[in-house]
Amino acid sequence: MKLTGAQIMMQVLKEEGVDTIFGFPGGAVIDIYDELERTDIRHILVRHEQGAVHAADGYARASGKVGVCLVTSGPGATNTVTGIASAYMDSIPVVIISGQVPTHLIGNDAFQEVDIVGITRPCTKHNYLVSQTEDLPGIIKEAFYLARSGRPGPVLVDIPKDVANKNIDFKGTTKVKLKSYNPTYDPNTRQLKKTAKLIENAKRPIIFAGGGVILSKASAELTEFARKTQIPVTTSLMGLGAFPATDPLWLGMIGMHGTYRANMCTGACDLLISIGVRFDDRVTGKTDAFAAQAKIVHIDIDPTSIRKNIPVSIPIVGDCKISLNHLNRLIDNIDLGDISKKREKWFNQIDQWKNTKPLAYIQKDVIKPQYVIDKLYELTEGKAIVTTEVGQNQMWAAQYYHFDQPGHFITSGGLGCMGFGLPAAIGAQVACPDKLVIDIAGDGSIQMNIQEMATAVQYSLPVKIVILNNGYLGMVRQWQELFYKKRYASTLIEHAPDFVKLAEAYGALGLRATRPEEVETVLSEGLSSPKTVIMDFIVEKEESVYPMVPAGAPITEMLLV
Amino acid sequence: MTEEKHIFSMLVDNQPGVLSRVVGLFSGRGFNIESLCVAETMEPLVSRITIVTKANRPVIEQIEKQLNKLINVIKIRDLTGPKSVKREMALICVQARADHKAEILRIVDIFRCKIVDAGMKHYIIEVTGDEGKMKAILNLLKPIGIKKIARTGIMSLFREPN
């Protein structure tokens, strides 16, 4: 059958189960858009290509499928870079299809030409420039396979205009076979047996889970493992929701803004079982002092994550779900004895940490940002999908909204990318039309991709945006307060739009709360509206996020309120 | 931690951009390259890259794992140690004053090199050998006057079992 590259592409996309694409058209992708229009694949027209990638990222995390975006050459492609880097750092499966100038013009500095394959080489799992139409179906198949298998990640496919145009004989696709790529899913049994032995003998064990548990859909296995062994659980920012925050074994998040008890546990534990994590510096603090008394077990599908930042006693390369399953069966055959008695002293110590230094704030006459999140949690019964921007809003969301399920906390963890929350919320809402999706934002970061309000309204996506408006770029201000003698260099936002009017201008609903007693009313009204809503909360200007571990300090040395 | 020199040899897809991925990995992650050597193998779709690098033990482990993670790297081996043969080739252009010519020819003879270009005032010497031999000949030629030098960097193969 004679088909054009663009037609072949549509067939392969359908084959890969694509039902939604986030994108923005342009000269180099007109042919592809022309074909896309004739399929039943839904296209969401964003207002900036960065938004397209974040939306695809949010879509991927909320749905568990591969997110797809489509952009044009040159500026269309370069605008995706931040989004790609964010997806790469957080290992999110996204396929980015970019148009390119025709092959005969490549290298000539043609109009809207940019070497996007060169630019994105270090921030994609892999990328391709398709040089002939014959290669197109195979490459698209490979792109999806790479994006979703092993440690997931973004894959970019750059398609020159003539490659999309050309008619070729198309005989269908074949199964992907890559001789150089073969992720290790099955863990080494001997290492797992050693781990089980350590669990048997440990006095002060903890589990440290991360985004890998969510990506491999291993939450049920993790929960079974923790409950069976009665080992308390902390997670990284990316791991929130991997273990139910309402479980008595939950310690709260670890790291720079982790809970006092989670961080203290890390310092005191004699066994740290880390699963699907990569020991980011925001988690470890000073690496020499991290879990210094503990034997460390590290399970991860990516061998490069193991021993990159932290030396470990038992490295286990494997899929989190499969590994935990094996481990659970091993534990079943071990007599752990009277486990609650065995853990009594450890649990008492943890309780003491919890009771003396809980997460806390005092709500007086100005709205505290933490109070807004507290109320939000209460009113939504913890069931909403929460996306965040980056900074204080993100940390308060992580601390005060308690996640019981995976895929409900969507944040730019590794890259820390402001402007992530709104487009990611759009993606999540597209993936889960019946869910309540909330973007917890700051007045600084919401302005980085505010243009996507138009997208949300155009597609009647009832995303709720909660702005914690303190008039500052709050996280940097906090650092300036603590470490730069309160010299607030360029962190005061001297002029901001009226967010209520802005919401109305976009055709959304705008609400504002300036006093604590208005918080609940505004939230109730906003959350129950069928429209896209911005809720602007005028909060305490110089509130800081605590606990805080200064950069480079040991994780157990926290600044507290 | 002390730094060790390691030789990595890898088979990679013979495609545009693959070398850039390998080299970009080194620059992006702050690893260092002492020498680099690339050419096609008997299989036209596959090239061999040999990289010499210097780092402490944990970083060496990272380098190997990170290279292995590249989709276009088919296979990677650490060829450090006596189980492999290592060779390098150099073209050395030396000043050849009349009173030095005999000395140069003697060195060429001792090191089993070849003169591949000769002029009134210069010789170009082709030399092949391991690291020790390279060092030794350069030490001897240096006082005579090395005008230019081009080196391939180290190539290496595992010795086959008997």
Please characterize this protein's 3D structure.
In chain A, helix 3 runs parallel beside helix 5 (81-89) and helix 16 (369-380) packs across helix 22 (516-528). Chain A has 22 helices and 20 strands. Chain A has 561 residues and is an alpha/beta fold. Chain A folds into 3 domains: 2-169, Rossmann fold, CATH 3.40.50; 189-356, Rossmann fold (3-Layer(aba) Sandwich), CATH 3.40.50.1220; 369-538, 3-Layer(aba) Sandwich (Rossmann fold), CATH 3.40.50. In chain A, helix 13 (281-284) links the parallel strand 12 (271-275) and strand 13. A 6-stranded parallel sheet of chain A has the order 3-2-4-5-7-6, sandwiched between helices. Chain B folds into 2 domains: 4-78, ACT domain (Alpha-Beta Plaits, 2-Layer Sandwich); 85-158, Alpha-Beta Plaits (2-Layer Sandwich). Chain B is built from 4 helices and 9 strands; from the N terminus they run βαββαββαββαββ. In chain B, strands 5, 6, 7, 8 and 9 form a 5-stranded antiparallel sheet that branches. In chain B, strand 6 (114-118) and strand 7 form a beta hairpin. Chain B starts with a strand and ends with a strand. The relative contact order of chain B is 0.20. The model of chain B has no long low-confidence stretch (mean pLDDT 96). Classes of the chains: A alpha/beta (561), B alpha+beta (162). The interface between A and B is medium-sized, with 18 and 20 residues.
What are the main properties of this structure?
heterodimer; A: 561 residues; alpha/beta; Rossmann fold; 3 domains; six-stranded parallel sheet; 22 helices; B: 162 residues; alpha+beta; Alpha-Beta Plaits; 2 domains; five-stranded antiparallel sheet; four-stranded antiparallel sheet; 4 helices; 9 strands; 41% strand
Question: In brief, what are we looking at here?
Answer:
Chain A is an alpha/beta fold. Chain A is built from 22 helices and 20 strands. Chain B folds into two domains: 75 residues, 2-Layer Sandwich (Alpha-Beta Plaits); 74 residues, ACT-like. Chain A, domain 2 (Alpha-Beta Plaits), CATH 3.30.70.
